Model the fold of this input.
Amino acid sequence: MLSFAVMGQYTVTGSITSEDGEALIGVSIMVAESTKGTITDIDGSYILDNLSGGEYRLEVSYIGYQSQTITVSLPGQSTYDIVLLEDNNQMDEVIVVGYGVQRKREVTGNIASVKGARLMETVTPSFEAALQGQAAGVSVIQGSGLAGSGSVIRIRGASSISAGSEPLYVIDGIPLAVDNFLAEANFQNGAFNNNPLASLNPNDIESIEVLKDAAAAGIYGSRGTNGVILITTKRSKTNKLEIDLSTRVATSQAANKPDYLNGQEWLQLRQEAWELDGNTGTVWIPNYSTENDAEDFKRQAFNDASQVNTDWWDELTQTGMKYEVNLGARFGTDKVKAYIGGSYADNESYIIGNSLKRQNLRANLDFALSKRLSAKVSSSVNHSVNERVRTSYTGGLGDAMSVSLPIYPVFNADGSFWRGYNPDGTIPARNLNAPNPAFGNENFSGYTEDTRYINNLSFTYQATDRISLTAVGGHDLLRQNNDQYELLQFNGVDTLDRSERDFRDVLNYNANVVANIDLSKGDKNRLTLLLGTEAQYTNTSGYNNLIHQFDPLNRGDGLAGGTLFSQGSHSEALRDTLSQDDINNDKRTFLSAFTRVNYDIDTRYNLQASMRVDGSSAFGPDNKYGFFPTVSAGWIISEESWFGSESINFLKLRSSIGLLGNSNIPPNQFVGTINTLGNYNGQPIRYPARLENSDLRWETTRVFDMGLQIGLLNDKAQIELAYYDKLTNDALLQVALPGYYGFGSFFDNVAEILNRGVEATVTVFPVSTSKVRWRTSINAAYNYNEVLDIGSYLPDAVSGGTNDTRVVPGESIGTNFLIPFLGVDPDTGQPIYLDSSGEPTFVYDEANDRRAVGNVLPNFTGGWTNTLSWGAFDLSALLVFSQGFDYYDSSSKRQLAFLTDWNVDRRIADRWQQPGDDSKYPRVAIDPASHGNTKEWFNTDLWLEDASYIRLRNTSLRYNLPVSLAKKMGASTGSVTIGGTNLLTFTRFSGLDPEVVRDFDNVNDRNLSVNISYLTPPQERSYTFSVNLTF
Amino acid sequence: MKISTCKMWGLLVILAFTGVGCQDFLATDLPDNELSFDEGIQTQQDLEEMVNSIYDVLANSLSGQGQKFAELLGQDVNMVGNVGDDVQIYRRSTDFFNGSSGGWYRDPYFVIYRANTLIEQIDRVGIDDVDRDRLVGESYALRAYAHLELVKLFAQPYGYTDDNSHPGIVLRRATFTDPEPRSSVADVYDLIISDLLTARASLPTLNPEGVRVDGCDVAALLARVYLYQGQYAEAQLWANTAITESAKTLGAFGTRYVVGEQPQDALLYIVSTSLDDNRSGGWRGPFASDLGVPAVRADFGISSLLADQPADLRRSTIDTLQDAGADVQVYTKYNMLVFNSTLLSLTEMYYIEAESILRTSGDVNRAKELLNAIRLRNGLAELETNNPLVLLNELLIDKRKEFLAEGINLWDLKRRGAIHGEDVVIREAPWDCAGMVLQFPASEITVVGFELNEEGGCN
Done:
């Protein structure tokens, strides 16, 4: 292109519309190879002025439409009206890659890209959950219905056991610190793992790129094994002021309600169990009578209990309301461009008292400091308050699902809370401790408050046309308070009211310097080199048990006690300092150097090699550094001259192989230590705290990937296929040592794990007319996972926490290790188990008879998105599916067949009652001996069930306001949307919800024990109404 | 365009600078409360703190926790319901997932590991011989104590087989060894006695504080061990030695568990300084009855046993409460919020010496004198008889009353079954049924070759 400057100033004007004639707003019109340009206004009009005479090439581009270039000769024609055609071709998109951007067609790695707007369509407790079904190979297992609940995300399977398997989250180039186990204990957190992502604002997100294979994630070397999620936040691209306002109102209801026996049914069943156990007379009833009571008393208690029928679920749940307002402004000058965004959200869950309130502020600024120097600031403040409730084993709704029986009234006749049967009022109140979650709600409150600052400053110096240098500094600070307040009545033992705070500071610094060098020669080939170094420092510090106990009549600070505190009222000044426990200052550092070379030959052949050397403080002197190389290649076959297919307009073959690593274990595990925490009798103590393992080193995963990208019928149909093979060596195990070693556990490189799978994504535009446009996209992934080796250890050496999963060679990670349940003896109703030799037995023998009987990791996952645009309406629906996994409902063992003091699921109808019965569940029993056991825990595969499901995750109907109507509202564009989340589920699973994961004990548990529940609140179902306006 | 050499060098310099000092940046940076192993053991003070940590574990594991198991297996408690870890133990059907016993099992091995660490590391610290001997002596004594507590609960008693070749526990004589099988009970007792004799030779006779082991305490432990073995001559010798060397008296009634002071007849005891350093929770949790009916109650037979002698002050150790309309018997010994608790008492030595005398046809008057001293302390009249069999019978009954809910009586019952061949039945189960021994936790079968205990057989 040439331009010839002559005397005089000229103007080019016009309008830009779609094929339908709709004015397109914000279309970019740039003068090629200059910084001069403009965008269209609300009428789709543009003015490009101050042009000298000459010939120009104007590049017209707009997201979702094919770019056009027109040649303008000035003086001459001055008006150009342009019709943009919708663009189905995603290959020319520029996408974010590690430490840079690339055109998608040139990318040799496997990267999935998800637009931020798509994430906002689904109501989820936290933004990462909305990735479900959006990208092939990205498995998202949703948490629970609790506000702020986190998900378990696995990219191409699980390849770690005791090291974290979470992907690396990188926001605007800064790796985030993501620790799901920050809080002191799940118990204090209401059986709810910490979710450090919950405080982030999904509306800030422009796009998310998921780096899946070695070519894509290799540049992150030691932290790429589990994939990388690159989050890019919104920025301003123009000088024009543009304001986006969006609001959303949504409801929250439980996706499913448990179906328990009512009070009378429960009593009858207990009597049945009592008699089947060989007893006579009236059964004793928990919190009404005892086994030793006289028959008259037991009968009276039984009769009185039968008058009560409380639905505890209803007592503790509600239709929660969610409100969210987002305001974003883009504006700028030639020197400075800014995006300022703010958000407020108040998200109640369906559990009374449970909510997540979130406030976010973001400023992304871009400075053109000089012709060669530019700077970017990305800064956000995120604050959230999670009002906690007790659930699962900590009480609350967990009690409603277990020990709060329908025969327990909420209140006594005098209005006080019912705590036990006391017909003549002679039993002291302190001896009455029946679980009453309504009482608990009155006397307990808890909050998790996160304040997170994520700041990022970068400078880019364009040293020459071919060399640029970018330096980035990141600061990420998460301050978390976990507060709880208990009135003295709560546990019935303390004589004082009590407040407690645990707090954590997670400080995360990151700096990197990257040089991009263009070494190309000639026009046909392009050779670029990236060189970089990076350093990261992360420290987690804090305290546990900042306790203040006080007289219920006087807090000690002049304020009255005896009432629950609210969030923020914890008084650290009044705390009992002796009760304070420092937690470790867990520090970890990374220092890395990396390079990437891209060689694109004749627009057809794309070669890439990357290398990264990572140093980590996690390992000892002999193993401190790891080397992670990758090579990859792409071949755009359709660009070959001999390729003459009419129907295939794009065909690309790509492949990569490389080494990735994982060092995500607690710091300093290689060094033997002496701990000095604590004292005895007022004297200091010190003791060996950790066994030395100087050989500890990185997990390394060899990743092979091969893929095919196909565009058919001018991209009316697009297909992406991929095959991968990941072999992890030296997988880190936190080995549970025999107790006689005198240590609990230590980390060792022991295991070998295979993940192998295929992925497919098919996107089709079956209808694409001026009036109707239908886009349908389905992605699916199959993953085979196998633990190949765990050295000389036995399955119990790597415990999956309390969920009875183990690591068994030849089986998948997350293998259910249970006693096989053969069936019910039709003569006696007793459960029949299988012993270690496969013979039927009535004896429940965990020591000898447990074996691999199932696995909880799905091997087939995906999503199907349909978007139908018809005039001003857009209808979209996202179906997600997860197939081929077992779901272990750990609470079923107490809710079915074994009748202690728990609620009983109505499925108990299919039980043995008399000789000859052919039933699913054995005869009911109160005494575990009746089922061949000595305790209440029957860990058998009777509670294991295929929970494959298809779920309508999200559906929405959007009405795009006509421009004229929007104008009347003072806006340029606008839309109104109604939608629903989790409206339909198709599954054979007989339990509450096939898609719930409970809280986890530790990293092992998190890796091994997804799709296991224990009184876990189900997902929420939500209806939404939202309004979006752009000014 | 050609990149100038100058610019390339400039680039590399910048990149290089970012990596300056990488060794320091990646250096191990332990938390403030952690030291590397070598740094952590350098001075005598470090060693003293290491010994303190052994007592710290002891205070967490033997202030009611370990003793509770002996009570649950024994004859003097009562539990309702049929679920829960403690109920499983109470029903003599512990399995390897029992969190209560499995969690406790590790604690004595923490004691042993720390004691072994001190024994192995002490010679790299400059320290005079007297202090060296004292610290080594304490380590051997505490190692023996921990092994003894383990073998009592996780193996059939001494005398269960003629040669005591039945499986005991894993012995740990050093910090780092390969996985080991269980040693025989004979070997376990041999090591315990060997360790105690080493400790006895190394320790000063008395440590006035009473919270760290001295030679007198080792004598008391030897008396206890020999009693369990039925070697009464040695038991008498060492009990007498402990009584003689001790500066203690039997003290007043009910002073083995006291708030804020030394238990009066304690040779060795555990300290709880305040609510924030409360080591008495292991007793309070299962037994205390001041804030409601506890999970572990007194067996109804106990109150009738105590009612035989109206003057017996020990009757106050049982109370009657109402639970859901029914009377329940509960213990009152632990109805204090924060208290110190006795591990080795002079009272127990009196019983051991007296019983040993009576079983070896020794000086009956001495035995009677010892037994009467306890009776007088408890408000009872002195016994007049010189009949050793009557005295032995009285002693066994009296000792049971004395140590109700203290985790001691079960071992006497098992000894009577194993050593003396008595037909001992404990809550309708023979003393030697498999379930009278706790099962090892699942952690023990993480390596090949560990032999679990038999289960069941008691009900």
Summary: The mean pLDDT of chain B is 91.
